[in-house]
## 1
Amino acid sequence: MRILMLVATTVATDTRVLREARTLVGAGHEVHIIGRSVPDTFQPDPGITVSSIGTSSVFRPEGGQSLAGRKLSPPMKLARWALLPQHRRSAFGRWADGALADSRGRQFDAVHAHDFTALEAGATLADERGVPLVYDSHELWTGLPREYRPTPLQDRRERRVEQRLGSRADAVITVGDGVAGALRDQYGWDHVTVVRNTFPLNPGKPDVPDEPTGFVYAGRVAAFRELEAIAAASHLVDLPVTIVGPADDTWLGTFDPGRATVLPALPLDEASRLMQANGISLVTHSDRWANHRLAQPNKLFHAVGLGLPVVATDTGELAKVVREHDLGALYPPGDAAGLAGAMRRVVHDFQRYACNVEAAREALSWDADAARLVAVYARLFSGAAGTRGEG
């Protein structure tokens, strides 16, 4: 069958979207993805095609320079903080309008809407064509951090829209048991299936060093990632610390990394080699927002797939998985000294934690999650769209 995916990201670095698309192609389907400002150089895997809608808003034309990363005067900072919600709403709205126009010239048998930003457009297309709608909630939308002025009216509207359209979706999938439980409690949904952000299991034993040579944080470099604690802890441990990933340049401009080295984003393979060369992965995030407490970050499953012990924040679903499989050491959120102590504990007991990670790799790999995703589509295309999801 032909599956139309809608996602307001560049696609090229969206590992969840690409992993799901590859899995569905492997199950015999065709997948077309409509993304947002997809790089011209991006080449998708066979069986996947991609088209792109540009990034613009009433405040900035396509290709216009962003204020992110620029040094702003206090009045400009205030204006940006105040106007950012309108800019985001306009930018995502224009993308959705473009995605609708692109989609109407295509043939598809199901619509897969990635995250709330694609949900309204996805529901419109599914209704127009009379095809199934899958809502893929990458996080708890109502629990996301807000780095702009409060928007209570907009928040209430988005909650009503998500409840209405998610309730009419033929299937809802999400990234973990915590988010699934929150969606069930918040909206009364009984058709949620968990498809985690795990990684494919490579054959053979991972290339893990006999002893660690450093710590690597590989992920988004921005607020609410506990990077301030990592920077402070870098002064308290002997081994070097590396921070690598796509950055919020505005936030990074005021960040003091301490003794840590900050690197720009790397292709997945290069980031993986960097992590394996160092031996220990830092899987950190804040517990300030509901979404942080419910999240099972990609970073965790990436580290496990590479066979690496972790140092993780003791919060919510993340800590639950680390404890269940004894994958490494935990520290209290915001506690740099506690983080440094956890880092030292993993160094001291590295081989034991590495053995635990190896034992957990299969259970925490993409094979099980891919099977759940394929099963969702099997139900939809077998005429059993009324069959509800499973955790």
## 2
Amino acid sequence: MKTMLFRRLLLALLFVVSSHVAAKDITYTTYQNGAAEYAIDIPDDILYGQGESGNHMGQIFKSADMDAKLFTYGIGNPDEKIIDDLYFDELNPEDKDERVFTYKKMSNDWFVVTGFHQGKVFYTKTILSESTGLIKKFYFEYPKAKKATYDDITIKLSKSFKEL
């Protein structure tokens, strides 16, 4: 019985260590969107671009198993909303009752909101460009069961997402 427990613990530890090492071994390629003037680092061999949108302002990236999806885009701001308005809108979507918000942070020209929705983790970062007035955003979602796999990738996405 003790031997079986020891083996299970050892296997769990090896899994955690190998997952952590694998996350560090990921290479990234910077996707630059010239039309919306933003850049973000995309993990090679994990998320695959599906081609830019018709207006060239964004792109969807999907994992091979379709479990993870990353939406990147820039949109105009015809109502000239300020960052506070955009943040309020993000925290009050139509499906707010179906979402659990776990982290929120706002700065002068950007904010982050993350949580759970329909069995998935979601992470979104929004930048309001002071120079162009464009709203630049990415939204990343993946199954809760794969949180350990995608958490380090999410951090890299967030840190690399910037205006050009």
## 3
Amino acid sequence: MPASIPRVSPFTQAVVQAMRKLYPEKLADSSFDNTGLLLEAPYRQQHLKNSVLLTVDLTKAVADEAINRGDSVIIAYHPIIFRPLKSLTQANSQQHSLLRLAQEGISVYSPHTAVDAVGLNEWLADIVTCSNEFGNPGASKTTVHERSVITPIKDAVEGFEGAGYGKIVRFRTPQKLGDIIGRITSGLVLPSLHVAVPQSVTADKSQIKISSIGLCAGSGSMLNGLDVDLLFTGELSHHEALAAIEQGKCVITTFHSNTERLYLMTTMQNKLFPEIRKQIDASIKAGTWEQGLTMDFQIDASHVDRDPFEMVASHRKEW
């Protein structure tokens, strides 16, 4: 009697287990977030490759990309299912993408704030302090500083005791605002940033001294009220930025997802590969890996995922 076909892709199961090891779902902010396996697609044997597509947002273009590539699973940093669904219809563009992916057998996993808690904000802190190759390629050493978590997680998972949301960086020696801007544009590979400074500063704004930074990826509302010199985030509202500069602080924003995308393309991709390999090996030892299924796999970042906003100069004729 032939062996029964698994209901769920063995490779997708290995990917999900790997993500849960690296970014435990218990660390996500359950007060508002929706993380985990959001779409567990039926397994279509020999229909898809053992491949993962990383993206910040699961748009129609990204869904098309995954289908054309034949990926088994999409890891979408932002959850495509964020609020309770009362129906699944073709009229809603996000639901349409989910239905198409399910039809193709492509699953969707979202880690979101679990990544914020144990990786992404630490990586942003590395950038502003020159603690990695992205922050300042020409830097000879890390700027001396101390770090702390803005909102620590109570009862964190074993091995992740220092996890939490947001970071505060305090420099031993004040840094020039212009130097920090250079580190961020270099580290995030961006041509420009949004910068706000107190209106009392009219001379060379790049020379403003910064002794402390409050930072978080994405939306920076959690930074409001912090006793720091600079707020660094993806986005702040007009009134939040005004309130900050009225208090004598500076603000740097990048557009929401520009604080997140390169982390997926570099750090997450590099961490995920060996962890998936471990999970496949464990599955083989347990006898749950499908006989004849290749152990080879690949992980790629989406080529079409990007922030919905672009900076467009008036002299550009085409863009």
## 4
Amino acid sequence: MSNPTAITADDGVPFVDTVREFDAPVSAVFKAHVDPDLLAKWLGPRDARLNVTEYNATTGGSWHYESGHENAMYGFRGVFHTVDTDELIIMTFEFDGAPGQVGISTTRFEEIDGRTRIVAHEVYPSVEARDMALATGMNYGVIEGYERLDEVLAA
């Protein structure tokens, strides 16, 4: 059984906060966030395909992937601002369909008795941009992606 995913998007601020625990050590959860082959196995909903074209998860590195279905693939890109192994990832994100609408994501990895809690804080360029991301089903993709990550970690 998966752990619950708490996603908070308060009215009037361009933030999305996500908290999730995993029954795996920090090193494994962190690796699944920085290894492009592992990322492709869990990020997003089950019915979507993820094609990672660039993923240099180091401080100053860049990333790009496409996600979606055969007839509708959507590109996303960004830059890794800070990557501290097993502790922190700070990165920008931008949807290719909304150029210039760059957000920033901070994900902390916390060890709790051999388990891992991730705490993510995303800042969008506006409340409207955040609401548009939420309206596209982002929450569903995050929740199902973390369920898939549970499966990757268990394997």
